[in-house]
C-alpha cells in the first residue's frame, strides 16, 4: 500500500506537466472564467464610485457592531477576503478572526493636476493598467502580476522596474483612508497629525486598521517602451553595469525609465533598459513586439536568446510591457509545465496560462502546501546593491536555481520616519543622495538538490538566507514564507514606531501582531525536517 502510494506520488511528480495540463489548467480556466464573469457583472451593475462613502460607513458600522460583542466572544480582526485570493504563499487562519467585509472595487477619481488616482483597495493591477494606459498614464510603482491589488501592495510591499527612480510602492502612496479598531475613519498623509501611521502602514499587512481608499501617484507614459537587451558576461561586469545604470553611484546619472536584469547563471545576465517611446517610422514599426500575447515565447526565454544573439532592441507596447511576466509568472510556470514554452503548446494552449494563483491556492492540500517550501523556493528579498555579487553567490550555494531576478530600487532615508525599515547604512547610501540603492532579488524555482533528488533541507537553507539578509541590512518580502523566530524578525525589522502606533491607534487588542499575521500557518520547522530526509 505504502509502496503504491509512493509510486503514485513519484509518477505524478515525474509527469507533473501532463497532470497540470490535463486537470489543473482547464479547472483553473473555468475558475478564472467564473471570476471574470463575476467581475464583469460587478463592474457593469455594482460599480458606483459615488457610493464610496456609503460603503465606508457600512464598514465602520460592521466594526462598531463587532465591538459591542462581550469581550470573551471577540476575536482579532481581519478582512473577510478569502485567503486563497491573496497572492501570499501563506494561509493566515482567518477562521480564528472576526472578519470584516471590505467590498471596495472602484476606481474613484483621476486627478491629472495632482497626478494621483484615488482607488478603493480591491482594485487590481490589471484594472489599473486597463484604466490608466489608454489615458496616457501608469502607476508610478506597479507590479507585473495583474491579480495583485492596489490595497494589498500598499499594506505589504511592492516594487517594479521603475523603482530605481522612485523607490518602493509606499513612496507612491499620497494618502490612506483607514478605519480604526473603534470604527472611526481617518485620513492619513505624510504631513497630517497621523503621519506616524502613514509611515507604518506599508509592511503592516492590515494589522493597524482597515484600508478603505488610497491615493496613488501616476506618471505620464508613451504608448511604447523602447527596450534594449544587453547581454553581459562576467558577474562583476553585470553587477557594475547595474550599479551604474541604476544611479546607485551617482544621483545625477542619466537613468533609464525601466531597468531590470535576469541572471541566467553566475556569470551570465541580460540587462534590460527600457525608455518610453513613440513609434512613428516604418523602420521602428518593424521592431514592435507584443511580448505578452499568448503565442509569444515566455518573456524570460525571449530575453535569454540575447545571450547568444548579442545586444538587441525592440519596441514593446506599454500594456504588454507592464504585464510581460504575467503569463509565465516570471519563471514559476516552467516547474509546473516544463514544455509550456514549446511553440505547439503556446499556439494551442498558451491562452490557458498562467494557472490562476487563486486557483492554485484554492486547491492546495496539506501535501502541496508542504511542497511549496520543501521542494520549491519562492522568495523576493530586498538587499543593498553593495552585496549584489555576494547575494547571487549565496543564493546559488543555498538554492542552486536560475534564472534570478534583479530589480534595482531606491530605499529613501526618511530619518525617524522609516516605519518598519531602517535607514540605509552609510556605506549603502548613494553619494550625496538621500537614498540607498537596493534591489529585489527574486529567487523562484525548484532548488538544484531537489531536481537531482539529493537531500535538501529547506529550513536550513532559508534560515541561512535570512541570516545573510539580516547581516546585510535587507528585508524579506512578507508575502512569502518566513522561517525567523520573533527575535530574529525584530532584528530584521524595526518595530519601535509600529508598536507605538499599535498602542496609539488601539490596534493592540484588536488586530493580530505583524509577526503573527505573516508567519506561516503551518509548523515549517517540523515539516521541513520531515521532508529533508
Ligand atoms: C508570483 C509572484 C511574484 C511576485 N513578484 C513581486 C515583485 O516582483 N515585486 C513585488 O513587489 N512583489 C511581488 N510579489 C508579492 C506581491 O507584491 C504581494 O503578494 C502583495 O502583497 C500583493 O498581493 P495581494 O494584492 O494579493 O495582497 P494581499 O496578500 O491580499 O494583502 C497583503 C496584506 O494586506 C492585508 N490587506 C489587504 N487589503 C487590506 C485592507 N483593505 N485592509 C486591511 N488589510 C488588508 C492582507 O490581509 C495581507 O496581510 C509577488 C507575488 C507573487 C505571488
Describe, in plain words, how this protein is organized in 3D.
The structure is a single chain. The protein has an eight-stranded antiparallel β-sheet with strand order 12-9-11-10-14-15-13-16. It starts with a helix and ends with a helix. Helix 17 (388-398) runs antiparallel to helix 19. It is globular and about 65 Å long. With 533 residues, the chain is of the alpha+beta class. The chain has 23 helices and 16 strands. Helix content is 38%, strand content 20%. The model has no long low-confidence stretch (mean pLDDT 93). Bound molecules: flavin-adenine dinucleotide. Residues 79, 86-88, 102, 121, 143, 145, 148-149, 151-153, 155-159, 205-206, 210-211, 329, 332, 357, 380, 440, 442, 477, 479, 517 line the site of flavin-adenine dinucleotide (FAD).
Cα(first) to Cα(last) distance is 21 Å
The share of residues in helices is 25-40%
How many helices? 23
- Amount of beta strand: 15-25%
The ligands bound in this entry are: flavin-adenine dinucleotide
Give the low-confidence spans.
none
Q: How would the global form be characterised?
A: globular
Spatial strand sequence of the major β-sheet: 12-9-11-10-14-15-13-16
Give a count of the beta strands, DSSP E runs of length 2 or more: 16
